[in-house]
Amino acid sequence: xxxxxxxxxxxxxxxxxxxxxxxLGQVWYNSTTKALKGxxxxxxxxxxxxxGNDMVKGRAGGSFFGSLTAAVAVGGxxxxxxxxxLVEEYNGTSWxxxxxxxxxxxxxxxxxxxxxxxxxxGQSPGNTAVTTEYDGTNWTSGGNxxxxxxxxxxxxxxQTAAMYAAGYNAPTYPPGNASNAEQxxxxxxxxxxxxxxxxxxxxxxxxxxxxxxxxxxxxxPSTNPTQSETWNGSSWSESSEINTGRGYITGGGSxxxxxxxxxxxxxxxxxxxxxFWNGTSWTEVSDMATASETSFGTTQATGTATxxxxxxxxxxxxxxxxxxxxxxxxxxxxxx
Length: 336
Description:
2 domains; mainly beta; single chain; 1% helix; Neuraminidase; 4-stranded mixed sheet
């Protein structure tokens, strides 16, 4: 029978503590904990939240796109006043104000990188079908949604391949929930098959051929289902449920097997819970430091994720948290 030494050419290290910076694939025996351990690739599921610098003007409920080191937060409002034209960019360290968006936006969708992003839908104050594109400096008009609505599920990851599903679906706010789904090609939106359960204010991620949507408010604001659904490019299917049903979730991901969702409420009450989708099921991972809902949040969660960029209630409204991952993760081997 082949041994580890036969395969690798060297034996397993016998250490009294885990190495500080193990290499990917390294294996050792920890004599203190009496456990056989090794390293695997880190990935987004192994991350943790840490504090970032506050927004210039803390607010909630706008559109968002970009990544941890190149993010764009558009529109939104504070409890006392709307800021639906305000745009801020985050460089991984600090926020700064940039050119205003030309059309007011609140609780719309968004996707793409910082230099080629797109936002769509929302309330201003009624439901809107407006689509607006960003080149990293300036805003230009794109093709309108077929059905104007807000607080839907965003995905796609690209200015020329965006997805928008469900949300509020009526000419006035607040109406009922929608099951509509649409896809953007950079100039116009095309209607897709509807989702199975109409709802709003959850989170989703993935591409135009492989996407997951999760949670959201159902028949009333107090109903926050655990359902999630996947899109395979032609139809929607029910999938594994999230662990904590809630609405007004933040999150996303540009890969359909690497999606992070966080925050939301009521469960009851606003939550700090974070969950990770691996393409098959949802797993609870590290909580945020401060519970939050209707925040700005990532749509490009490939290895890192940002931003829980506000605090509800009396707390500071511009608080930022960053989700970061290590290149490797330490695992304890078991007989199973």
